[in-house]
Specification:
This protein is an alpha/beta fold and 184 residues long. It has five helices and eight strands. The chain has helices at residues 2-8, 19-31, 53-65, 110-116, 159-174, and strands at 11-15, 36-41, 69-72, 86-87, 93-94, 98-101, 134-135, 138-142. The strands form three sheets. The protein has a four-stranded parallel sheet with strand order 3-2-1-6, covered by helices on one side.
């Protein structure tokens, strides 16, 4: 099982630099500090932009102090995840014993860009919206939840606030009133 895979691996590659990869890196180093642990993350800072840069830099410093290798601003393609020799987008060759994909899921929004145009989505596949939750070029269409392009953690507890804003704005739209409720 997975416990044996982790125990046997001397060189672990974590693909993605979010909370899951950071926790894996810490746990692996706690159990055996001699293991090589590498995180490859496409952004220049760990985590995502929902966290302040100062915090993100402190996490990086802490991991480096524990001997975790960080390849920031780099990327591993999905089709390379099963290879014994992995070449990153920036040309770095890695030969891990164990590869753990730690990237967050991409939202299933391709149907939206197919019907409303490619400019509707961010590069990560999230729907571009105003603070009113209206789509940028489609003011009578609203989007919220995991698909909305927001700088915040995607957590179910936040979605009640999304719904509150959308309900007020849809009612205003139906009543030919100005849409003015903004998400903060």
């Amino acid at each position: 099982g997975w416990q044996a895979k982790f125990a046997d691996a001397q060189d672990v590659l974590l693909v993605g630099g979010g909370a899951i990869a950071i926790e894996f890196a810490g746990e692996i180093k706690d159990l055996d500090s001699s293991k090589t642990v590498t995180i490859v993350h496409s952004d220049n800072l760990l985590l995502n932009k929902a966290y302040p840069d100062k915090f993100r830099k402190n996490v990086e410093k802490s991991l480096r102090a524990r001997g975790v290798n960080l390849l920031l601003g780099d990327f591993v393609a999905n089709d390379a995840l099963t290879s014994t020799s992995i070449v990153t987008r920036n040309g770095k060759t890695l030969t891990p014993d164990l590869v753990i994909p730690c990237r967050g899921p991409r939202p299933n929004t391709s149907f939206i860009s197919a019907s409303l145009g490619p400019d509707t989505l961010s590069p990560a596949g999230h729907v571009k919206i105003h603070k009113t939750f209206q789509l940028l070029n489609h003011p009578r269409i609203f989007a919220c939840g995991d698909i909305a392009d927001l700088d915040e953690q995607r957590q179910i507890g936040k979605y009640a606030g999304h719904v509150d804003v959308i309900v007020k704005n849809v009612v205003a739209l139906f009543n030919d009133q100005p849409i003015k409720t903004l998400y903060k």
